[in-house]
Structures are given as C-alpha cells and as structure tokens.
C-alpha cells in the first residue's frame, strides 16, 4: 500500500514531488526565454541563444582579425585607405545585407518565440492535468545489493541445474498427512436447528479495512446472523482514506449466488424494509461500533448483548466489525464454506497432483513480497540503501507514522542489526530470490508477483530479476483495456492478486502476518487436498543464516534454507484462539481421514 508522497521508483501513480517541481521549473524557464520548450529540438530549428551567440562570436572574430592588422603603420595606412575607397560600394552592400538578415532573423525569432511561450503554457497545463496519469517520475538509483557473494553462488547453481531433470518435490506438499484433511464445514449436523421460520430482525454490517479485512467481516456476519436467527442485509464497505476504494459488495462478489447458496442457512436481502429505513438507528441504540463489542467476542456475548436489541428494535447495525467474532468455542453448525459462497462458480480450484503434472511448463509460483514503502519505513530496519534510504524513510515516518515517532522518543532504541536478528525486518527482494534459489526453483520458473509497488522499484528488484527473469504481475499480464476497469480500485486489484495466489502451483510468502498471505494460505489448506504447498520462511532463522553470507558455502546455504522451509510446512492443527481463516485445519472446520 504505497503512500502518496514517496519519491521512490518505479511506482505506478506515484507522485515524486521533487521531480515534479523540477519538471515545472523547467517549463517555466522555457516559457520565459525565446527558446523552444524542448531545448534539444528548439535550438536547432530557431537558433535560440546558440544562434545569437554564434552571431556575436562571428562579430568578435571579425574584430579580432582586423585588430591583428591595426598595429601596422606607415605605408600600409595609405594602402588601407586606398583599398577602402576602392571597395566602398561592396562594403555598403554587405552592411545592408547583414542589416536585412538581422531584421529577418529578429522577426522569425519573435514569431516562433511567441509560439513557444504558448506551447510552454500548454505543456504546463497538460502537465497539471496529467500528473495523476503519470506512471512514475523518478531518478534512477544504483542497484542495492547486500549479498553479492551469495548472488553469484546462486547464479552459478541455477546455471548448473538448468538442464538437469526438475525434481517435483518442491511443487508438492512434503508431508502426506496434509492430504488426509478434507473440507467438511458444509456437513449438516443432527443438532443443527436449521433456519427458523421467523426472523428475529435484520443485521446490517458496514465493514472497514481492505479486501481481506472485509472478507473476514462478511464471513463473521453470516455466522452471527445464523447464530441470532436474523436476516442479513448484504454488507456494505466503508470508504477508507488509506485504500481510497469506493467498491461495494457487488463490485467484487456475486450477489445472487451468495444469496442463493446460503438460502437454507440464512436469509439474505439487499436492503432493509421501507418501514425500518426511516428509523434513526443510532438514536434507538441499535448502532454497534467496534468500541461496543470486544475483539473476538464469543457467541454468548452476541446472545446476551445483541440479541435483545435485535428483538426489540428489529434491526442492528454493526459499524466496522473488524475481527469481532472469536473462534473458541464456535459451534460446528455455524461453519460454512464461505469462499465458495462469495466467489460462486468462479471459485478457484487447486490443482490435483495429476492435473499439476499435466500442466508441465505452465506451472507457476506466486510470491507475495511484502516490501512496500510503508512496511519498510515502519520496520526501522536497514536495507543497505545508505544515507539516502535512511533520510527518505525517516521523512516518510514523520509524515505517515507520527505516533511511532513519539513512541520512539520515550523508548530505548533497538539497532537495525538486532531487529534483523529478531526476525522483525521485511525480506528484501534479494533475500526472497536467494530463498527460492536455495529451495530449488530453476531460473526459468514463472513467478507471479502479488501486492503493491516494491520500495526502491527496479533498482531494488534487479538482484531478483537477475536470478528469475520470468517475473510477471497483473499489470504485465493484462492489457491496458483489460486492466482499466480495476485500475482505480485497490480492493478489486487485491482480488485479482488473491485469485492468482490461491490457484498457483506453489505460493510463497515473505511475511506470515500479512492478511493476504494468511488468507491465501488458509484457502489453499482448506481446498488444496494436500497438493497446494505454501512456503513460509522463518525470518529469524533466515537472518541467522544470512549473517554468514561472507563465508557460508552454497550447499550449506541450500541445506539450511530447505530445512527451514520444510519445518514451516509441517501439518499442524489449529491452536486455541487462532483464526480458522488462516488455519482451518481443525475438527470444527475440516475432517481428518485415515
């Protein structure tokens, strides 16, 4: 989620204020002179300052040449006067010709100069109109490279493996137990009372956050509506100054399918009845904000505090509804395959082992590389960019994270080296590439890069693309016309990333705390049938390995990275309090078959 005001590159729609000001100053200077607005062209056509300077230089050279003869005395003086009288007509003609040329030149320059002033004004105006459409304006930065020795070793190793047979182990889940867990949230339990004949009222939800937070809120809203025997009004999405996306439910999900597939569990309507629209929901006490109900509240909390309001007023409105339903205890009959209900017939299917084998060269890895400017700045880590990077991130923090700045004034600072050792620093593109190379992915592997713009742009991505050139994004895969309907809608763009990551042959994340990464991982666990591997680097362990970058051999690096990744792929059952959307492998959500 890159923020406005960043001077980094390349970043679509970013506004490099320094570069923009320089561009504006350039146009102003152009309009104030008699030159063309494009110096490299204008001076050749019109002459401009260069033309006038050449005239002056020529005149001075004539004076200098004549000056060489002025010291001559005696007989030469008389000869000079005689020569002057003899050639007076020719001299007069030359003077008239020069005067005529000066006049003509002045006229041409003034005409074209006025055109250029108008052109410069037009350029300035068009620049103002098109600032929001500029992909990026930036200064090229030198490539940032922190592990040059390891990169060279990785490049050599990838070259050696290029023509060797590709082992399939990293395209599959390494543990067979993963395939024994199957989705069963749609099983009807005998104890389930089913949908009541009469509804207790209407539940409205206005969800905050981005796509992933909203998705969790939708799922929780269905569970709460079922719990309280209520009719659910199609959720609304609050506009966020961070995401700046006005998208609503129907812009991302299939409304009709959503209502139809849940008809046996929850009644869903588009709007509340007319007789309830006139109510002041806040005045009657039916507006419930996140401050009114605790985070991850238990089902009994809703029964004791929300149900009486619902029965009395026939409507309640949850405003925000961010993570306001806990998971323990959560009755199994409240579980539902919400992803299918949200996405309908377009639900991404995770490839089976046979299908994966048939796909062959079309296999791809999806990578969610969390290295956006806001995350980089907030981490307080050092990423090898020197004083320029340090000053830039400090300026970003002062604008976007003032509370963090205040907190730092009252706490003992932790050095960037210590933060790295503790595993608190985002992985750089260079580090992510080294992990993939060590794990065994070949140079020709197709990689889909999800997420926002990478801090540092192409200069920061160069170490990655030097190892893995087949890197694509939604912006490079789609044509301009295909991308146009989504371009100004961050949640819809995030939905494209979600689908591409959820259906990839392998999904790699660099930050397990990321909402997108966590929900994609949960989706793949639930629907993957043991054939949807996810790679989760342990940042603390990886930092310890990379501390030896100046001495460690490539074989040792490979071995330690692979052990780290496989440890993160172990089949684990969801622990108490953990989100079922992130870790659905539990008896309430999935069934384990022998």
Automatic annotation (TrEMBL):
Compartments reported by the entry: Membrane
Gene that produces this protein: LOC111280985
Keywords: Carbohydrate metabolism, Fucose metabolism, Glycoprotein, Glycosyltransferase, Membrane, Transferase, Transmembrane, Transmembrane helix
GO biological process: fucose metabolic process
Keyword Glycosyltransferase attached: yes
Family statement: Belongs to the glycosyltransferase GT106 family.
Protein name: O-fucosyltransferase family protein
Originating species: Durio zibethinus (Durian)
Associated pathway: Glycan metabolism
UniProt membrane topology term: Single-pass type II membrane protein
Any one cellular-component term (Gene Ontology): membrane
GO molecular function list: glycosyltransferase activity
Transmembrane as UniProt keyword: yes
PANTHER family: O-FUCOSYLTRANSFERASE 2-RELATED, O-FUCOSYLTRANSFERASE 8
Any matching Pfam family: O-FucT
Listed transmembrane segments: 91-115
């Amino acid at each position: 989620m890159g923020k406005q005001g960043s001077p980094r590159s390349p970043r679509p729609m970013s506004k490099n204020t320094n570069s923009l000001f320089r561009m504006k100053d350039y146009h102003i200077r152009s309009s104030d002179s008699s030159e063309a607005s494009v110096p490299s062209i204008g001076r050749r056509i019109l002459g401009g300052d260069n033309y006038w300077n050449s005239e002056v230089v020529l005149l001075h050279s004539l004076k200098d040449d004549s000056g060489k003869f002025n010291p001559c005395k005696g007989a030469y003086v008389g000869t000079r006067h005689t020569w002057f009288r003899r050639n007076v007509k020719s001299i007069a003609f030359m003077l008239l010709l020069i005067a005529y040329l000066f006049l003509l030149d002045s006229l041409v320059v003034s005409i074209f100069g006025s055109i250029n002033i108008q052109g410069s004004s037009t350029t300035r105006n068009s620049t103002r109109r098109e600032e929001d459409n500029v992909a990026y304006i930036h200064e090229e930065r030198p490539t940032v490279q922190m592990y040059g020795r390891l990169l060279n070793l990785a490049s050599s190793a990838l070259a050696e493996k290029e023509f060797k047979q590709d082992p399939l182990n990293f395209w599959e889940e390494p543990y067979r137990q993963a395939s024994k867990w199957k989705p069963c949230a749609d099983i009807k339990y005998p104890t389930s009372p089913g949908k009541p004949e009469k509804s207790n009222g209407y539940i409205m939800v206005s969800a905050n956050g981005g796509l992933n937070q909203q998705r969790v809120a939708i799922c929780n809203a269905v569970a709460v509506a079922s719990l309280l025997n209520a009719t659910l009004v199609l959720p609304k999405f609050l506009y966020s100054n961070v995401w700046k996306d006005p998208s609503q439910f129907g812009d991302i999900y299939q409304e009709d399918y959503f209502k139809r597939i849940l008809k046996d569990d929850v009644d869903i309507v588009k709007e509340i009845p007319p007789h309830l629209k006139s109510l002041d929901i806040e005045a009657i006490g039916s507006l419930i904000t996140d401050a009114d109900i605790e985070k991850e509240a238990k089902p009994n909390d809703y029964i004791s505090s929300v149900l009486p309001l619902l029965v009395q007023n026939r409507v309640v409105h949850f405003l925000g509804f961010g993570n306001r339903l806990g998971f323990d205890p959560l009755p199994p009959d409240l579980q539902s395959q919400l992803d299918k209900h949200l996405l309908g017939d377009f639900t991404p299917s995770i490839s089976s082992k046979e299908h994966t084998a048939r796909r062959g060269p079309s296999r791809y890895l999806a990578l969610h590389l969390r290295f956006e400017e806001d995350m980089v700045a907030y981490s307080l880590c050092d990423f090898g960019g020197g004083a320029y990077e340090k000053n830039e991130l400090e300026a970003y923090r002062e604008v976007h994270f003032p509370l963090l700045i205040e907190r730092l004034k009252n706490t003992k600072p932790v050095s960037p080296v210590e933060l790295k050792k503790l595993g608190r620093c985002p992985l750089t593109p260079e580090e992510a590439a080294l992990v993939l190379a060590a794990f065994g992915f070949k140079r020709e592997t197709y990689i889909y890069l999800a997420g926002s713009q990478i801090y540092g742009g192409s200069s920061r991505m160069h170490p990655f693309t030097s190892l893995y050139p087949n890197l694509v994004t939604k912006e490079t895969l789609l044509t301009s016309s295909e991308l146009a309907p989504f371009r100004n809608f961050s949640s819809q763009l995030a939905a494209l990333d979600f689908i591409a990551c959820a259906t990839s042959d392998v999904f790699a994340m660099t930050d397990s705390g990321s909402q997108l990464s966590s929900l994609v991982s949960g989706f793949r666990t639930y629907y993957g049938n043991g054939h949807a591997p996810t790679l989760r680097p342990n940042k603390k362990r990886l930092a310890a390995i990379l501390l030896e970058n100046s001495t460690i051999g490539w074989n040792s690096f490979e071995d330690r990275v692979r052990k780290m990744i496989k440890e993160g792929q172990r089949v684990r059952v969801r622990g108490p309090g953990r989100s079922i959307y992130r870790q659905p492998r539990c008896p309430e959500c999935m069934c384990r078959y022998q």
